[in-house]
Design goal:
The chain has an 8-stranded mixed β-sheet. It has a 5-stranded mixed β-sheet with strand order 9-10-13-11-12. It has about 600 residues and is α+β, with helices and mostly antiparallel strands. It is about 35% helix and about 20% strand. It has 18 helices and 22 strands. α13 packs across α17. Bound molecules: adenosine-5'-diphosphate and magnesium ion (MG). The site of magnesium ion has 5 residues, from α2.
């Protein structure tokens, strides 16, 4: 071959189509996803999905949407043929699910298609038959208004792709997931799924709560808490799973951006982190989140499957979602979890005392302002966790400094009036509006110190007390390495350290507010605990350090407290973001209502 023989040639169209199709339609579930998207874009109120052999031999989507006219019915199968955008400008604000004009072209390249469609205003419908390359057939037909597309023998002409399909079960699981996500995204649309003649899903048009129940069942729906945060930037609403119902995998996380099901590690992580230590290692929270923001701030044109998103500012969105979920969780009482119905209570409409005995205030809510409901003593409602809802804070500020906007400023403790009783130098008992509350003094103090420590590390506002007699500490090589690694964090926390040689450190100052007597041991204790702390939980070092520091610096069981100290502690506790659980996930307080006490004593009135 001479050097001049050109090696590059343009692929024949049918091969190019098959290659392109592979990106859009990877398996039956992606075909279903594209077809459902088209139905939704066409304004369908009812969508029916029919399968044979998990979509392998046949899949069909029937809708009652706008339908297509005689010309469009054929034109729809052209590559880059779309009615949804017409200019580059449109691409910047996509408001439909489809816009690339690829799905029908792709499907027709790798399967046999039968389309029936009719516009309501027209008498006759159109039938189009495409057979993977052979010339199209088009004729008038009688059919209901709307569109029905049958896709037969998917990948019949791309054996490579066909081979990669998994078992029917697996393919069906993907389809079910796709249909469920679509159904969640539009509760106002009725969905039916029929597989080999069996009806496997049917939901009528219904309100969001009912749709959640239709998809996940009563039992699981009862473990969810409704949240809603609105701001100038948009809104975040959805359902959060209670921590104890966390899942092994990430698959049960449902994220919708402007009504489009998406996958996003960034957002998933923001939610996960909002649960802080409430969730066991290796588990993930279950959640359904609807994020609505200006489409101009997003780019869905990242991948042909359109389920990946780029935001103009990923960090901002991360912080926004994280703050919203955190707020929902923190205004929720984990100490008395019980199943709640997804009705008024879930929407935060329940008023104090309205449902005695349900024992649950997991009604993080619709702009909930800190602890509320019957379980919260009135004085605390005033003190509250006073976290302004996202809607109150200017969103831009919130993005910049989500924490500093919060009302919790442990540096300025507010006393709680009391009275307080300390029992066994371990627990604090406090009368509340409708019963009593028992606080674990160590766990409470841990929570307070933990949040202060995090804030100090973030804000880099050192608060150091210098030691009168600097301490020389001998370190193991592992400890020395750890100190090297954590030095900036330790310094922000308030430690004043100088390395002296390889394995010696001189401790010149320690964080403020340590218990007297702890100054010399605290560093080694914290390092020890830091290393013990389970490595499997991938907390960032900052959080791990705050966790070990709070554990070591907090008052212990056995420490006698003065009433004023209890008052300060409880006051500060209720200024934290998550007063109900310690950084290790244990409850900080338990409540007993008068109702419960009366019941235990057999009182009837
Ligand atoms: P896209 O959805 O990106 O526009 P598709 O290839 O999925 O591209 O569809 C091409 C066009 O066919 C759409 O823009 C729409 O005009 C039309 N179409 C497809 N499905 C339907 C449907 N179910 N009802 C009405 N029109 C449809
Ligand atoms: Mg489409």
């Amino acid at each position: 071959m001479s050097d001049r023989t050109p090696l590059i040639r343009v692929l024949p169209p049918d091969l190019a189509d098959k290659i392109a199709a592979g990106e859009v339609v990877q398996r039956p579930a992606s075909a279903i996803k594209e077809l459902i998207e088209n139905s939704l874009d066409a304004g369908a109120r009812t969508i029916t999905v029919v399968l044979k052999d998990a979509g392998r031999s046949l899949l069909q989507v029937v809708d009652d949407g706008s339908g297509m006219g005689w010309d469009d019915a054929l034109a729809a199968f052209g590559r880059h043929a779309t009615s949804k955008i017409s200019s580059a400008k449109d691409l910047e604000r996509i408001t439909t699910l489809g816009f690339r004009g690829e799905a029908l072209a792709a499907l027709s390249a790798v399967a046999r298609i039968e389309l029936r469609t009719r516009r309501a205003a027209e008498e006759a419908g159109t039938l189009v038959i495409l057979d993977g390359g052979s010339p199209a057939r088009r004729e008038k037909t009688g059919t209901a208004p709307g569109t029905s597309i049958i896709v037969r023998d998917l990948f019949f002409n791309t054996p490579g792709r066909r081979k990669f399909l998994k078992s029917d079960r697996t393919e069906f699981r993907h389809i079910l997931d796709t249909v469920q996500r679509a159904a969640l995204s539009r509760p106002g649309v009725a969905f039916t799924l029929l597989s080999d003649g069996e009806e496997l899903l049917r939901c009528p048009a219904e309100p969001m709560e009912a749709r959640i129940t239709s998809i996940f069942g009563n039992k699981q729906a009862a473990t969810l808490v409704r949240m809603l945060e609105e701001s100038d930037a948009g809104s975040i609403s959805g359902f959060l799973g209670m921590p104890k119902f966390a899942r092994r995998g990430r698959s049960e996380q449902y994220i919708f951006l402007n009504g489009r099901p998406i996958v996003s590690r960034n957002i998933g992580h923001a939610v996960f982190r909002a649960y802080e230590h409430l969730i066991e290692k290796g588990s993930f929270p279950f959640f359904v989140l609807f994020i609505d923001i200006d489409p101009g701030r997003t780019d869905v044109n990242v991948h042909p499957s359109k389920n990946e998103i780029k935001f103009d500012d990923e960090q901002q969105v991360y912080r926004w979602v994280n703050a919203a979920v955190r707020h929902a969780i923190s205004s929720t009482d984990l100490g008395s979890i019980g199943a709640i119905p997804l009705d008024g209570a879930a929407r935060g409409e329940r008023e104090a005392g309205a449902s005695p005995g349900s024992g649950s205030t997991w009604s993080a809510g619709a702009g909930g302002r800190g602890p509320r409901g019957p379980a919260m003593p009135s004085a605390f409602t005033a003190l509250g966790t006073a976290a302004p809802s996202v809607s109150e804070a200017r969103v831009d500020d919130l993005f910049r400094a989500p924490e500093s906007e919060r009302g919790s400023v442990p540096g300025r403790p507010q006393e709680h009036p009391g009275p307080f009783w300390q029992v066994h130098d371990k627990y604090i008992i406090i009368p509340t509006g409708d019963g009593i509350m028992i606080v674990d003094q160590h766990a409470a103090h841990e929570r307070v110190i933990y949040e202060t420590a995090l804030r100090r590390m973030d804000a880099m506002e050192k608060r150091t007390q210098e030691l009168l007699f600097p301490q020389t500490l001998e370190l193991s090589p592992a400890e020395a390495a750890l100190i090297g690694e954590l030095m900036p964090l330790l310094e922000n926390l308030g430690f004043l350290l100088k390395m002296f040689g390889r394995n010696t450190v001189i401790l010149e100052g320690v964080p403020m507010d340590l218990r007297p007597g702890d100054e010399t041991t605290i560093l080694k204790d914290v390092l020890g605990l830091f290393r013990e702390d389970d490595q499997r939980v991938r907390l960032d070092p900052r959080e791990r350090l705050a966790k070990s520091f709070s554990c070591k610096a907090a008052v212990k069981a056995g420490d006698r407290l003065k009433e004023s100290e209890m008052g300060t502690l409880v006051g500060r506790l209720f200024q934290t973001e998550v007063p109900y659980v310690c950084p290790h996930g244990r409850p900080v307080m338990i409540r007993l209502s008068l109702d419960e006490l009366d019941r235990k004593f057999g009182r009837t009135s």
